[in-house]
Amino acid sequence: MAPLALHPGLADWLRASCHYQPLAASTVLQLARRIQRWQQWPGGPGAAPPAVAKSGSRARDHLVRHNLRLIVHTWGRMAVPGAPSADAFQEAAIQLQRAAERFDPCRGITFATYATPWLRAAFLAHHTATVRGLKLQLELAQLEEAQLENAHQPSPEAWWEPGLGSGLGLGAGAVRELLGLLTPQERNVIRYRYLRTKPLNTRQIARRLALGQGCLADLEHRALAKMQQHLLVARAA
């Protein structure tokens, strides 16, 4: 697996996680039983005696710490463009904790096998949310600029450039920089989809660029992911 380009803060967190080695199956079983006793207490974990709750929560945290590397391993096996953000890893860590609380060793599967779908779901949900956020920014910026340009009645083929005073943080220079990250095909898709005074729908874009609908969706997905990742890194710097 190729090394991931990570923000320094996230890289430090991952280096720290490497101090925790995988646990023996017998240790995982013991920890899981302590967690189950706490989580399955009559009336819920909140009703468990303090000693049971303390033992269970410590066992959960121990199990999670020694499986933190599973997070980066899961990311590396997923086809999600770009490098993960600290927020994505934090959400995955929360899901790892929830998986630890619900893990049943009697099912005959390892904790890593059980937890992996939880981590995949966390990464996919975070990626979808961040890409959706970028789409919204582009659409709002387009609406803002269209209102400003209405008096000039631009031609249908005109491309808009966000004004430098835009409160959305996507000024003309920022948009040019983002577009510079893309391949020519990706750039065309984004321009037709978001940076046109009268945006085209996906069917029109596919016909104009001689692309299949599936290929067009992949190009848009990759382009938005690249742009979003760049924004995340820039904000963290």
Q: What's the mean pLDDT score?
A: 76
Calculate the terminal CA-CA distance, rounded to whole Å: 26 Å
Judging from the principal axes of the Cα atoms, what is the shape? elongated
Structural domain tally: 2
CATH names the topology of the largest domain as: Four Helix Bundle (Hemerythrin (Met), subunit A)
Structural class: mainly alpha
Per DSSP, what share of the residues sits in E-state strands of 2 or more residues?
under 5%
Number of separate helices? 10
Give the topology string: H per helix, E per strand.
HHHHHHHHHH
Uncertain stretches of 5 or more adjacent residues? 1-6, 150-169
* Number of separate strands: 0
CATH architectural grouping of the largest domain: Up-down Bundle
Using only CA atoms, what is the Rg? 23 Å
CATH class of the largest domain: Mainly Alpha
How does the major sheet shape up?
none
What level of helicity do the residues show? 55-70%
Descriptive overview:
The structure is a single chain. The protein is mainly α and 237 residues long. It folds into two domains: 8-127, Up-down Bundle (Four Helix Bundle (Hemerythrin (Met), subunit A)); 130-236, Winged helix-like DNA-binding domain superfamily/Winged helix DNA-binding domain (Arc Repressor Mutant, subunit A). The chain has helices at 8-17, 25-39, 50-65, 69-76, 86-102, 111-149, 172-179, 184-194, 202-209, 213-236. Helix 4 crosses helix 6 and helix 5 runs antiparallel to helix 6 (111-149). The longest helix has 39 residues, at 111-149. It is elongated and about 65 Å long.
